[in-house]
Design goal:
About 60% of the residues lie in helices and about 0% in strands. The chain is mainly α. It has 2 domains: about 80 residues, EF-hand (Recoverin, domain 1, Orthogonal Bundle), CATH 1.10.238.10; about 90 residues, EF-hand (Recoverin, domain 1).
């Protein structure tokens, strides 16, 4: 109860700042939310931060309400493995079609990996990584990851939860 009350108090403070800075509706707008993800949780990847925003913004009104804030942070900070699997899959399913496609994997991995100066085309290395990922996680061998594929892979190896980029806070 005390944690929820603190989250609501923090939300109200941040929402007031958001309204003052951006003249937004009641709640947290995308810019304020991304700033929180960056400053508080160290997230750097713009695409992942946008996807996290969408995962929190359940009603798709481009604003995080107090209920979305509390429910989202509940999963984000203290969720069960099952809740985190659903959340991460939602973040990684860029087009919302219920699958993580080869193209979506490529796009996320390209953004999240450090660029190494080398002779080799970096896209080739990422394509190889996508192939390896599909061999490891695509249990039904259809060339894309369904939620069931993702869930099974993560349950077999928890480290795969954030296989396509950091979308959860670290332990600290």
């Amino acid at each position: 109860r005390k944690e929820v009350e603190r989250l609501i108090k923090l939300f109200n403070t941040l929402a007031t700042e958001s309204r003052d800075r951006f003249a937004a509706a009641a709640g947290l707008d995308r810019n304020m939310f991304r700033n929180i993800l960056h400053c508080t949780f160290g997230m750097m990847d713009d695409m992942i931060m946008d996807r996290v925003f969408r995962a929190f913004d359940k009603d798709n009104d481009s604003c995080i309400s107090v209920v979305e804030w509390v429910e989202g942070l509940s999963v984000f900070l203290r969720g069960t493995l099952e809740e985190k699997i659903k959340y991460c899959f939602e973040v990684y399913d860029l087009n919302g079609d219920g699958y993580i496609s080869r193209d979506e994997m490529f796009h996320m991995l390209k953004n999240s990996l450090l660029k190494q100066p080398s002779e080799e085309d970096p896209d080739e290395g990422i394509k190889d990584l996508v192939d390896i990922t599909l061999k490891k996680m695509d249990y039904d061998h259809d060339g894309k990851l369904s939620f069931l594929d993702f869930e099974k892979a993560v349950r077999d190896e928890n480290l795969l939860l954030e296989a396509f980029g950091p979308c959860l806070p670290d332990i600290k």
